[in-house]
Amino acid sequence: MKWTSSLAGLVSLFTLVTAQSDSEPFVDADTGITFQSSTNSEGVTYRLALPADASADKPYDVILQVIAPVELGWVGWAWGGVMTYNPLTVVWANGKDVVYTSRQALGYYTPVQYEDAKYTVLKGTGVNETHFKFTALCSGCVSWPDFDGNLATLDGTSQVNFAYAYSTTPVEDPSTGESGFSIHDSVGHWTHDLGAARSDKFSSWVAANSGTNSTLRRRLRVGRYGY
Ligand code: HEM
């Protein structure tokens, strides 16, 4: 009897552990957006906000945010949790500006430009003394063709496995997203709770944090941000 109940306890503990994600809610002061946020052991933070109806049924846009120590040459987000054949977001600092590039790896070499993910840079993007911070709306980050050519979409109701990569080596030409860069110093994985990242405020967050590029750029250059 005792054995049965402790076994039941073990089983429920196991369920609890496997159901755990590495992300938690975080309200970003710069944008007012409530993200699901995850910071890895290298001190790089990955955040996501999704529309309330996000699911695996159809593609949806996301708001992503990446914050990284300025010492890093580049940091990456692999949306499929592996290096190859899925959208990669790669970000670095160029002086006071943040530069991003949309890539896809066709093998274990420098990923090529990837046109099917489009980014709109939002407020909450800039560089301070210690970190760079990138906030954007992405259309195409969570859906991509599988090996049969069918579009698959990350299940916005569940927990999803992402991968990160970073390098301490600067990219070849930090001023352009077309720059080449060399292999990471480290890669790893985390589980992000997409279901909990959904909100019916999504559209109003996008509207409140959009601006013309020049307005945005001016604000970013003079702006300070918190975490
Ligand atoms: C010049 C750029 C890059 C080079 C040369 C490169 C090369 C490699 C190599 C050789 C491996 C080891 C494969 C193995 O041992 O099985 C690897 C693994 C990995 N890379 Fe890259 N990589 C680059 C950029 C990136 C970027 C930008 C990301 C993510 C945004 C990334 C994510 C990963 C991940 C998650 C792995 C673990 C294995 C896997 O998921 O396939 N890499 N990379």
UniProtKB/TrEMBL annotation:
<feature type="domain" description="Cellobiose dehydrogenase-like cytochrome">
    <location>
        <begin position="26"/>
        <end position="203"/>
    </location>
</feature>
<keyword id="KW-0732">Signal</keyword>
<dbReference type="InterPro" id="IPR015920">
    <property type="entry name" value="Cellobiose_DH-like_cyt"/>
</dbReference>
<protein>
    <recommendedName>
        <fullName>Cellobiose dehydrogenase-like cytochrome domain-containing protein</fullName>
    </recommendedName>
</protein>
<feature type="signal peptide">
    <location>
        <begin position="1"/>
        <end position="19"/>
    </location>
</feature>
<dbReference type="Pfam" id="PF16010">
    <property type="entry name" value="CDH-cyt"/>
</dbReference>
